[in-house]
Amino acid sequence: MRAVIFPTPGELEVVERETPSALEWHVVVRVQACGVCGTDLHIYQGEFPARFPLIPGHEFAGVVEEAGQSVASLRSGDRVVIDPNLSCGTCRPCQRGLTHLCRNLISFGVTNDGGFATHCALPARQCYKMPAAMPFEVAAMTEPVACCVHGIERAQIRPGEVVLLIGAGLIGLVLLQLALMRGVAMAIVSEPAAEKRELASSFGAALTVDPTTGDLTEAVMKATDGSGADVVIDCAGGPATSQQASGLAAEGGRVLLFGVAAPDAEIKVRPYDIYAKEITITGSFINPFTHGAALALLASGRIRVSEIISHRLTLAQVPQAFELLEAHQARKIIIEPQRTGE
Question: What is the pLDDT at residue 17?
């Protein structure tokens, strides 16, 4: 098989490897589409904990090529989307039902080889059958959408509230759609890229703000008669946006830190503001029991992602994908491992 491998942080190779075989409870999936996530870039740069050497890629879908002898739920030819996160089931968080916070979490594309390859072997339990008519590139977005479903649940959005989303990449645009499903009165989006602001407007944002040319605080306060947003979601994950978020929340507001910050990043907060305004600051980590819901939302068309995909590249073009991400010149990039042409 052909694969992209990170031998160590900062190194990338396209290699030929022996195609894996399916163990007793495993399947081998022929990968048709794999999303490029900011986490992949952070892993490559050595800014996110991972296990090297590594085949990255945790947002993927494909076709079962081989099923192990004890696998009864899948057979060769089944179209599947992958939940990359596998818990141990025995640590304290797992035994409390917090499987996504497993202390021994396996994540295909982070701790184990993932979808930047023509084939991937993994437990059959990580596979969800997808509808026959569903495009693989849409199905590959199930994992990020599943994370967003969990995030919306953590934010506890109620009908009639005002929601501010900081960042309008794939995550921000999916969270926007999910927030609108909750019946929010107004969704405000802060995003420096004009085409992403246009997408946000087309998806239903009532107001979009370019934070590089306008004052976001002033815009939010004007739109909310000085109250601020009931829910502020930081989709960007930078220290500056995370620090800004609590100051934009209304009394009794909630702040969701969704974007992935560097492990050593720090922000300053004013404890008095949190105390006096009863602001709740919470996080959201991966996708506990939300993968099926995400797949159903994508299959039904309630969540739209096709318009967000801007590039479709080959395995050999993964370096180009990272360059596009670093330069903020892509919305969402899909790697098509079976395609070899440039």
Answer: 95
